[in-house]
UniProtKB/TrEMBL annotation:
It comes from the Bacteria. This is Sensor-like histidine kinase SenX3. One of its GO terms (molecular function) is phosphorelay response regulator activity. Residues 345-381 form the PAS domain. It catalyses: ATP + protein L-histidine = ADP + protein N-phospho-L-histidine. One of its GO terms (cellular component) is plasma membrane. Its EC number is 2.7.13.3. Residues 479-700 form the Histidine kinase domain. Its main location: membrane. It is found in: Cell membrane; Membrane. GO terms for biological process: osmosensory signaling via phosphorelay pathway. The keyword Acetylation does not apply. The chain crosses the membrane at residues 27-48, 54-70, 82-109, 146-167, 230-259, 271-290, 302-324.
Amino acid sequence: MTVHNESAAASRATGTGEPMAGLRASLLRTAGFASLFVLMEVLSRVPFTQSTDLYSLWPSVGVAVMWFVAQLRSPARWIDPMVLVAALVGINLAAGQTVAVAVVCTLLAPFQVGVYMRLLALAHPQRLGVVGRARLRRPADLWPQLAAAVGAATAGAVVGFPALWAVTGTFQWGQAGTVLISTATSMLICEAMTRHVAAVLTGLRARHGTLRAAWRQAVREVPGVRIGEYLAVIGCSAAAYGVMFALPGISMVFPLLALTVWAAVRLSTTYVLMFSAAVTLAAGAVTLYQSGPFATLGSAQAAVLIAHVYAAMSTLIGLTLALIRDERATLTTALTAEKEQASRQAQLMNAIVDSMSDGLGVHDRDGRLIMHNPATVTLLGRIRSPEAVDPIAFYGLCNLDGTPMNEHDLPWDRVTADGQPHVADMLVRNPDLPHDRILRSTAAPLVGPDGYMDRVVSLLRDVTAETRHRDALASFAGVVAHDLLNPLTTIEGWTETADDALADIPEHPAVATAHGGLVRVKRAAVRMRGLVNDLLAYTTTRDAALTPAVIDLNQMVTDIADARVDTAIAAGTPVPAITAADLHPMNADPVLTRQLLDNLVSNAVKYTAADVTPHITISSARVDDTVAVTIADNGIGIPAGQHDAVFDTFHRAHRGQAYSGTGLGLSICKRTVERHGGTITASGNPGGGTRFTFTLPAAA
């Protein structure tokens, strides 16, 4: 318990000490800024207290802005306005001003500071309250700050000079212009310098911990040439301004702006701000003490006005050039970083593409292979040279039956023609390959940012082993199915014979058991014959020669619908409602096309929920040289994600449910359609059920 109490006491002591330390630091800053403000007021007033009741320079307003910006997050910032008012009252009374003038001047300075900070907050809400981070970084940041400074100075002139005229009875336009320019310039420089210095110090502490460590690191890292350049600018500026301010004639002063340009182009923005502040104070101070080239222009007010015009020009030129340079450096750094990142990503992408086992290539609109990865050379055996005009002969591209491919059947040429992805299997046969290869080419359009397709990307995959394995399996299935028909016929025949023999025997439990066994044998034989027939049909659609003919699709659909209705009536199941629009004739193999339609209609009837009447709609549309046939039903549908898989061999979407099948029906449909050069797809029917769409050649 003792240790716990001591820790609590230490924690309370620490919690109390931190606010006290912050308060002490805040009061020290208040004292420092107040001293600087008083010093600037004294320096600007002393030369004129004997000749006029009005002062002609107000750089101290910039110090006030610096003061209040730095104290925005101070725990004792309520003290600052009180100290500012007290300092202004004391200075004005000490300068011999009347009480009325002192009151006006005392209220005017806080008013200008408040207007400036309000305008700056409206222009850049994020800048106030983040002194250590908000700084001028680009020319676009300068103009709102300049507008705020001009706006605050103008507001002060609009309010202050009528008030001073009312209490003094005098007004001087030259003095108004001087105060306006000097106030705006001092606020712009002092506020920007406060934020830049704070940002630099914050960054140094964050990177190095202490300013001493930062200084040591800078001494080690900053090149001697850069330090020499800083010293050269300081030395040349001091010498040039010292000489020029000692000579008469304004014409020799404005060329000194070249020093500002030098500093702005080569040195840091923080240094440019300090340089501008030094030029402003030097020009103003020399002119106020009636010395230097500006003092020869006649009246003191005119001299001070020209001096501050020069200082404002120097400040704006220096800051604008420095911020342009900073923005350019920032953009250059960002661009370099983006280029490096893009280069790394490109290298990574090249490494990924080069390491692929599949061939990846890009074709132009003429079908030429313009980009490829190493796997493409391995799969094709060679790469087409620019002189090789015919890619089919050069690569040895053939259909799977060994006949040369038609140029218009190449997947990338088909993509160029219709802008749609295409997939095709092709046999590649050329002397540079150790053996024939079967490649599956997947081609897709490559669309640029402008929406224009000027290239085609193709992916080549070696499916030789897969295709040969599938063909071998299909051949084996066909042979086995054919060989099974004879014993299956024998089983069915002797089952019928046994069943007939049992019919003449009197009823007995053993006879009933025998009848039950024969029924199960019959059902198994029916399922076996269905599987054998499907295997034979699958083999037929793969191997049988096509004999295309013009097909009256309306008559074929009517025959299939009548057969399905008769089957339903005989089985006592709901009679399907099959409707067909006026269907387009097509040019295809009649036997395979009938089998295709019968399979799809049979599936639509079979995969309908119990006690639901199947509704099947068949429609067609002419698409170029093909007829697209759509068969829509109201069945149980296909589970999500399986609309492509249902066409795979032996795939069953509703496995384990009360829907028998071998999983070969849709594979047979796909094989039939593909052998005719068409496509078949499955999708959900908006009204419930499934929608199959296939394409076959249209009749001429």
